[in-house]
Amino acid sequence: MKIFHVDSSAKRERSNSRALSRGFIENLRAEGVNVEIDYLDVTVDTPAHVTEAFAIATYHAEHERTDAMRATLAPSDALCKRLLEADAFVFAMPMYNWSMPSAFKAFVDNITRTGITYKNAEDGTIVGQLSRQKALFITTRGADLRPGTVFSSMDALTPALKAAFSFVGVNEPRFVDAQPLQFSDQEARTEALRRAKAELAGVAAEWAALEKMRVGSAEVETA
Ligand SMILES: Cc1cc2nc3c(=O)[nH]c(=O)nc-3n(C[C@H](O)[C@H](O)[C@H](O)COP(=O)(O)O)c2cc1C
């Protein structure tokens, strides 16, 4: 299973989202999945912000683009290719100011591409091209935003991720939200990490079962 694994926390060794995404990959391996990783740290290789040149080039049809337009779009093309070639996505990020880290938003702006990750069908509908891939979002939050909490209405992260990735065809993404990890007592933080790790182990077991079925049916087809 080829996984496009993206980390987005400004923190490194101390980052919980990085530790949880690493742990999830280890869970998959422990489940016997043959994992191949394509790794991107968007805080190191940060995709460019949208520029005027990008905004113009992206809405020109492929055959109308100048060499300069193609050069502008090349890094975004390359990121889209990495998504299309993956079987699954593991996107890990902390909540920053109720939404996603700006480096991950720059990533979203680069991979939402007309004619590549989504296509305009003749009947006017949008057809996302990433419907084959499984997706897991691991988010870490300082506060507790679960339903029924004071901050529950402040979650602008989950809806933004759902909207952006459903547009490019990602069906039924899984979310594991570790919360509260900062603005709470130690006991609540420990419990939040324990819950998140248990949920991640569950997702890994599900993905492993699906992968075994997929590999099994591919072997039957070639037999
Ligand atoms: C700049 C910044 C903004 C943050 N904004 C929020 C926020 O809006 N809501 C929240 O619950 N936590 C917020 N936090 C806390 C982080 O989401 C939390 O500590 C998270 O666990 C960090 O994940 P990491 O360990 O992977 O970096 C913020 C942290 C930073 C550094």
From TrEMBL:
- List each copy of the Flavodoxin-like fold domain by range: 1-198
For the ligand (FMN), the binding residues are S9, S15, N16, S17
Q: EC?
A: 1.6.5.-, 1.7.1.17
Q: How is the cofactor bound?
A: Binds 1 FMN per subunit.
Q: Which UniProt keywords apply?
A: Flavoprotein, FMN, NAD, Oxidoreductase
Name the cofactor(s) required for activity, per the record: FMN
User: Can you tell which superkingdom this protein's organism belongs to?
Assistant: Bacteria
Chemical reaction(s) catalysed:
N,N-dimethyl-1,4-phenylenediamine + anthranilate + 2 NAD(+) = 2-(4-dimethylaminophenyl)diazenylbenzoate + 2 NADH + 2 H(+); 2 a quinone + NADH + H(+) = 2 a 1,4-benzosemiquinone + NAD(+)
The record's annotation in InterPro entries points to: Flavodoxin_fold, Flavoprotein-like_sf, FMN-dep_NADH:Q_OxRdtase_AzoR1, NADH:quinone_OxRdtase_FMN_depd
GO MF annotations, alphabetized: electron transfer activity; FMN binding; oxidoreductase activity, acting on NAD(P)H as acceptor; oxidoreductase activity, acting on NAD(P)H, quinone or similar compound as acceptor
Q: Which PANTHER family did the record assign? A: FMN-DEPENDENT NADH-AZOREDUCTASE 1, FMN-DEPENDENT NADH:QUINONE OXIDOREDUCTASE
Q: Which family does it belong to?
A: Belongs to the azoreductase type 1 family.
Q: How does it assemble?
A: Homodimer.
Functional description taken from the UniProt entry: Also exhibits azoreductase activity. Catalyzes the reductive cleavage of the azo bond in aromatic azo compounds to the corresponding amines.
HAMAP family named among the record's database cross-references: Azoreductase_type1 (MF_01216)
What name goes with this protein?
Answer: FMN dependent NADH:quinone oxidoreductase
Q: Which organism is it from?
A: Paraburkholderia azotifigens
Q: Write the gene name.
A: azoR
